[in-house]
Amino acid sequence: MGLARRRNPPRGRGKQLSIVAEFESVGLRYGTGSEVLRDLDFRLGTGGFYFLTGPSGAGKTSLLKLLYLAQRPTRGRVRLFGAELADAPREALPPFRRRIGVVFQDFRLIRHLSAFDNVALPLRVAGQSEAEVEGPVREMLAWVGLADRASARPPTLSGGEQQRVAIARAVINRPELLVADEPTGNVDADMAKRLLHLFTALNRLGTTVVVATHDIGLISATAGAQLIRLENGALVDPTGALKNPPARDS
Amino acid sequence: MLDWLFASPAERRLLGNARMRGAMPWVIAIMSFSIMIIAATGLALAGTASTLSHAIEARYAVQIPNGGGDLGATLQAVRSATGVKTAEAVPESDMRRTLERWLGPAAQSADLPVPALVNFDLKPGARLTEVENRVRAIAPAAQISSHRESIGPLLRSLRLLQWIAFGLVVMLSGAAAAAVVLAARGALDTHRSTIDVMHGIGATDLQVTHLFQRRIAIDALVGSFGGGAAAAVLLVLIATGATFAGELTGGRTLVAWELVLLALLPLVLAALATWVARTAVLSALRQSL
Q: ipTM of the predicted structure?
């Protein structure tokens, strides 16, 4: 698949800082419970590679939901792609969601659709014709090793195969921001390595990648990645690097 | 405008390919059948009431108790009055035949006094006074009555039944709309995970709505035309031979515009169902982020 950069803002000359996501005093609570996320202040630079870590229940999935616009914060400001979205009308959200790829922990594949149709969904939602969809989807399925499983439905796929379909769906439209929740949880070491390679390839082309994981091997294998650590819903950022991320070479 | 109705195969696959899903087409078919029959009855009643009303608008009857012998003179007096369009005497034999229903053979007895009866129509704008004066000059006991007053209660009943029929059409349409809302909510619940995925990858509410709107529109079209066709067959059977057709419609047949209206009803019902489905789905989607 030609992973040519699309839609990403042109990168400037020399060092520059462009922010893809900015959280300011963000808090989140479900219903009347206590805050599961509190006082989050951080910025994600365009083209950055971030690992989100922390113990179970620290709020990683909730933070990811805020990032992929499945949840609104109960307080604070969330800016994505330069737009204030915490209070944006819901009609304004779909164009931003199309710029984000998401790999869910539970895959969320559509059970009655084939692997091909699942992967093609973001392109079809974006209005691409069947002729435009066919090639990239076949190429992406081949890349994740599922070329011969294109017509298989999710219930007939193994956990690892389903995860690869989910990943292919998340990256098929070359998103500007890729959010993945435990993407290597169900795949073997070789496939984990290949998926990480795909993420880093996308990252090199300008996609900002945020991966929630407990996999230390994955983190250590990714040069230049930054860690976002959550504990009890709060960010652990002693150096302030996440609040004022360093500029990257373009 | 109707692009949403023609989905690509890929879009059709999103909600599965099952045909005649659930009870929706059947419910719509029953509603369509009932609406057609009731609407046809309502239209026939309205037409009958209108025909009857026009027929008796200027019709009067002169009745002379024990006046069988004065019948010819009475008829002549009525005909000679200004403003009388037509006048005809009811033969005594007809009167006795009518009475036979209640009195049996005794109605033919010469001892039974039978009133003389003359029916007449006045021209528009003519006054009844002159007829009254002429008739009373030869038969002081004569009574002149208006058919409109006699048939009034029947006409009012026909009008009431007509409005009840139209009210039932509205109520059945409302029930069909409610069934569509329930079906739409059921479909949304069934496909909740698909909707969540589609929203997550940037589908708009309209994109999601079109999927459900299309499916419900097809179900509604199939159901309403099926029910409408069954109702049409029944109406044709009634109109072409059944003896109770006369009792149902008062002998009046439906006119062209009424037939066109009936033929359009399934389409209107399908359009209503589609609009209701669209509104219900959009409204439900707005509850989510």
A: 0.81
